[in-house]
């Protein structure tokens, strides 16, 4: 989604802004822009489309400067156009602003400013902020820059991460945050601000994260932070401890394919150092829960969005099966506005690859407001969710760039599987079963490596079915969320209508969709209920539907009834969902490619969803 960058120092800001914007591209956007302060005046440059369009335009831009702000926009208010792209300038070009988030009362503020003769040239909520800042500046020209911005924000309802450039303040950028991430990267005689550490990690590893309600003044040699109620803030400088390699595909045609193939490593990293010495259980240093606390949990509650929500559903099946603890799973976007009754002794987890999903963050705050300690599972160290949770588990899956989550999903499944084992061993699972489970987990990277060899076989299946417009994904029990994930991947990447159901639900309605045009993908890798799945498969065949089966390499003769059979190794139930989803990731990827889709940056989507 939208990305923010800002630079103040001695170097030419333009090229730094463009470079950093390129590193934000993976988040998803539809236009890009920058503004430079050049000899006392602000000059904007914007382009619809990719950052390379902006870069091309910048080569002929007559303006330069050592201070500037930049933005990648994902449209919310107003269509995709240059006029709506950021930065937005105030009337008279005294101020320029880039903004992530949504100003909810922008119409009210617009009416107020229109009465003061301000004119608006875009359809965005952001432009009103530029003019509101200008209004407050003209009311009290002696005020410091940060104070003007602070006063302006007092009138604003909604969410924002902003960076503001001011003509009267030639060596200062003001930034502010409310529910939209922002950080200040500290350099030597220069500072750089961004909405995402990925954008600036090549310039500095020393960063200060802004908290909600904070406003910062950033100059080349100095920065200061205050809160909305004017208290000064003692900041903490963090070292980025993750290496952000230069963003490239390492010889793969797409990040998505590269990340699918990175799964053995991502899974290995999720497990590293997390097995107990006796080889029968797991441990998570970050959870900071005593054995007694773990034993006293009566219920678990998981909250997430999209693919992370599917991981939670798998977690529910595994924990209920192995640890016999009831688990509830909610979409974070629903939970935040529902008054969900939570029982005592409920352990709450929020799960998010990016750690920045606004709905998940809001759900986290809601659970904390109710007095529950909240644990997090996230991939991004230092992300908003990582910092707001009481404790948690890092995935260590490595940077995920493809908008469609793949390796982060299987890494979350690995963590849930390990959590199921940890809780099971605190209850009824004996040491022998624990050892078998650990053995299965340790074999995962190798088994996943085997499944990756199916790539070409799945490509050929995708070639046969890529023109179809209707896909049903069917699975039972823990394979139902895997079916949901398979359908989501196909929708996201190939723009094909795909739905998922628990297999036995077919005859309660969805079977009406089955015709010769329909492709039904059965995920039948678990040992239980195979004969029931076979019956459902026959019902689809009897109605002319095409059948693809993802099956274990056991004895069932799926080939007799399925049009295509993808065989994966038969494995322990605790890791089976991980093995089963990989063929579906490949399938979505190849169908997307064959249909000519931009699989790394699917239309209308963003890597981290930071607006509601
Ligand atoms: C995954 O393929 C999707 N792009 C999307 O559903 C994603 O999982 C969701 O937006 C949640 O993101 P998060 O894990 O970063 O919170």
Protein architecture, described:
This protein has 612 residues and is α/β, with parallel strands linked by helices. It has three domains: 3-239, Glutamine Phosphoribosylpyrophosphate, subunit 1, domain 1; 255-450, Glucose-6-phosphate isomerase like protein, domain 1 (Rossmann fold); 453-612, Glucose-6-phosphate isomerase like protein, domain 1 (Rossmann fold, 3-Layer(aba) Sandwich), CATH 3.40.50. The strands form four sheets. Strands 3-2-4-1-10-9-11-14 form an eight-stranded antiparallel beta sheet. The chain is globular. The mean pLDDT is 93. Bound molecules: 2-deoxy-2-amino glucitol-6-phosphate. 2-deoxy-2-amino glucitol-6-phosphate binds next to helix 10.
Layout of secondary structure:
Layout: E1 3-8, H1 13-23, E2 31-38, E3 41-48, H2 51-59, E4 67-73, E5 88-89, E6 95-100, H3 106-115, H4 126-139, H5 145-153, E7 160-166, E8 169-178, E9 183-186, E10 191-194, H6 197-200, E11 206-209, E12 214-218, E13 223-227, E14 238-239, H7 255-261, H8 263-271, H9 291-295, E15 299-304, H10 306-322, E16 327-331, H11 332-335, E17 346-352, H12 358-369, E18 374-378, H13 384-388, E19 391-394, H14 407-425, H15 431-452, H16 455-465, E20 470-475, H17 479-494, E21 497-502, E22 518-524, H18 530-542, E23 546-552, E24 564-568, H19 576-594
Parallel strand pairs: 15-16, 15-17, 17-18, 18-19, 20-21, 20-22, 22-23, 23-24
Antiparallel strand pairs: 1-4, 1-10, 2-3, 2-4, 5-6, 6-7, 7-8, 8-12, 9-10, 9-11, 11-14, 12-13
The chain binds 2-deoxy-2-amino glucitol-6-phosphate.
């Amino acid at each position: 989604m939208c990305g923010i960058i800002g630079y103040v120092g001695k170097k030419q800001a333009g090229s730094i802004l463009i470079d950093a914007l390129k590193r934000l591209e993976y988040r998803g956007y539809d236009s890009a822009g920058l503004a430079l302060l050049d000899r006392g005046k602000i000059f904007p440059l914007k382009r619809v489309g990719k950052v390379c369009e902006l870069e091309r335009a910048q080569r002929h831009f007559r303006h330069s400067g050592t201070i500037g702000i930049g933005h990648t926009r994902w449209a919310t208010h107003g269509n995709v156009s240059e006029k709506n792209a950021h930065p937005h300038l105030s009337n008279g070009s005294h101020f320029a602003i880039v903004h992530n988030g949504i100003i909810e009362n922008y119409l009210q503020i617009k009416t107020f400013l229109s009465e003061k003769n301000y004119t608006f040239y875009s359809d965005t909520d952001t432009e009103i902020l530029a003019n509101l800042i200008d209004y407050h500046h003209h009311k009290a020209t002696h005020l410091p820059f940060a104070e003007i911005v602070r006063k302006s924000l007092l009138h604003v309802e909604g969410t924002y991460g902003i960076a503001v450039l001011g003509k009267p303040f030639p060596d200062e950028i003001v930034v502010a945050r409310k529910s939209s991430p922002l950080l200040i990267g500290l350099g030597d005689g220069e500072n750089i601000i961004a909405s995402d550490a990925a954008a600036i990690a090549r310039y500095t590893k020393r960063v200060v994260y802004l908290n909600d309600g904070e406003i910062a003044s950033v100059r080349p040699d100095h920065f200061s932070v205050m809160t909305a109620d004017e208290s000064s803030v003692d900041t903490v400088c963090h070292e980025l401890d993750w290496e952000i390699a230069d963003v490239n595909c390492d010889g793969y045609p797409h990040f998505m394919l590269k990340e699918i193939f990175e799964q053995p490593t991502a899974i290995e990293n999720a497990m590293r150092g997390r097995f107990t010495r006796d080889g029968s259980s797991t441990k998570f240093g970050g959870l900071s829960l005593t054995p007694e606390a773990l034993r006293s949990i009566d219920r678990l509650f998981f909250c997430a969005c999209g693919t992370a929500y599917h991981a939670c559903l798998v977690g529910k099946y595994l924990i209920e099966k192995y640890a016999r603890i009831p688990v509830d799973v909610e979409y974070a976007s629903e939970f935040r506005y529902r008054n969900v009754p939570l029982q005592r002794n409920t352990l709450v987890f929020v799960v998010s690859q990016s750690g920045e999903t606004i709905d998940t963050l809001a759900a986290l705050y809601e659970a904390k407001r109710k007095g529950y300690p909240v644990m997090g599972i996230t991939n991004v160290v230092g992300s908003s969710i990582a910092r707001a949770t009481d404790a948690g588990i890092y995935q260590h899956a490595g940077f995920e760039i493809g908008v469609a989550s793949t390796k982060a999903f299987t890494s979350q499944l690995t963590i849930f599987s390990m959590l199921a084992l940890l809780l099971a061993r605190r209850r009824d699972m004996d040491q022998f079963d624990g050892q078998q489970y650990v053995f299965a987990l340790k074999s995962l990277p190798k088994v996943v490596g085997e499944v990756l060899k199916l790539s070409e076989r799945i490509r050929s299946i995708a070639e046969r079915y890529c023109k179809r417009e209707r896909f049903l994904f069917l699975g039972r029990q823990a394979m139902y969320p895997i079916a949901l994930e398979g359908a989501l991947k196909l929708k996201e990447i190939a723009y094909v209508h795909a739905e998922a159901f628990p297999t036995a639900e077919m005859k309660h309605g969805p079977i009406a969709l089955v015709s010769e045009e329909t492709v039904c993908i059965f995920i039948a890798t678990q040992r239980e209920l195979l004969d029931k799945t076979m019956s459902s498969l026959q019902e689809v065949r009897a109605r002319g539907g095409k059948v693809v089966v993802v099956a274990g390499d056991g004895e069932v003769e799926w080939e007799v009834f399925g049009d295509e059979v993808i065989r994966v190794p038969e494995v322990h139930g605790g890791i089976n969902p991980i093995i089963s989803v990989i063929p579906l990731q490949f399938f979505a990827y190849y169908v997307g490619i064959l249909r000519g889709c931009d699989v790394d940056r699917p239309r209308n989507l963003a890597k981290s969803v930071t607006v509601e």
